[in-house]
Amino acid sequence: MISWRAGRVTALGRxxxxxxxxxxxxxxxxxxxxxxxxxxxxPAIGDRVLLNTTAQTMELGTGGYALVVALPxxxxxxxxxxxxxxxxxxxxxxxxxxxxxxxxHSPHHELLRDADSLDGMPVVTADLHSALPAVCAAxxxxxxxxxxxxxxxxxxxxxxxxSRTAAGLRDAGWLAGSVTVGQAFGGDVEAVTVHSGLLSAxxxxxxxxxxxxxxxxxxxxxxxWGFSGVACGEAVNAAGVLGGxxxxxxxxxxxxxxxxxxxxxxxSLTAYGRVALCPTLLAVPAEPGSFWDxxxxxxxxxxxxxxxxxxxxxxxxxxxAASPVGLSTMGRGLSADRASFxxxxxxxxAAASLLGGPGRAM
Length: 362
Fold this sequence. Notes:
CATH topology of the largest domain: Rossmann fold
Strand content: 15-25%
Oligomer: single chain
CATH architecture of the largest domain: 3-Layer(aba) Sandwich
Number of helices: 11
Number of strands: 17
Shape: globular
């Protein structure tokens, strides 16, 4: 189940919040690897490293790094005990203990103990992590200064640190903060569930808008129910029962070679059509052409429970082009699959329209 290798660090690469790229020599071959220094300690050239190389063995795309499991000759010192006792990535060899925002030793425990309302905060739900910068681009283009908080669920990467996108958006001031929920970890705030994560985004991080999406990497099986994006509908329900206003990103592609994802993905039809029980505002670009006509026809099947809004997309191409991080979905950039990013931006524009008034300084 795991491909194990031992190697030695020969070069250090890019670093961003919580992560460090490196190159390791493994039996004479140069292997691209990623370390999470808060788990393993900071690697240095010459260190011996224990690697999990399963992703490279399987030739995965998003997760194609070898992952540093340990620096066995230079283990980090033990972290001080407490005050947190929330365990993430539970019962795996790299389980991490963090301070949960809800737990009794948290300074926010009293605030959250009986919290039960998002007070109408828009909550944008997305299947893919790649939607995150596109949603932000539209919100900030229409309403500069809006405080956006990313709530990362655990359907993809568990460490938020894996995401260069989230790190870049935070560094650029596009994200005001992050919450990691479920088994995911590494956010500014750690929460047990999507529900408490959304309440934390609103009450602790003072969000105007929350975006809920899994981390990089998603899982699909070509079946109706076996895909990690089902959580999109569950996030809608969490937002709805807490008095938020769910806004759904429709997964749309004009370039995916798989018929089930061309036009409106079957993932959106299942997540919003079958899982999401709370009424949701679904945004679809009001673009001309037969492709978009077909998408709108597909999306109308969701209107028994949800509201479909056709969004004027003027100015959104420019907003997307101004993203401080690269736009990529399934290896395709903006020019290769404009529809995907435009659909996410349309949801961002719809969410911004629910706020009213100007934004505030970050």
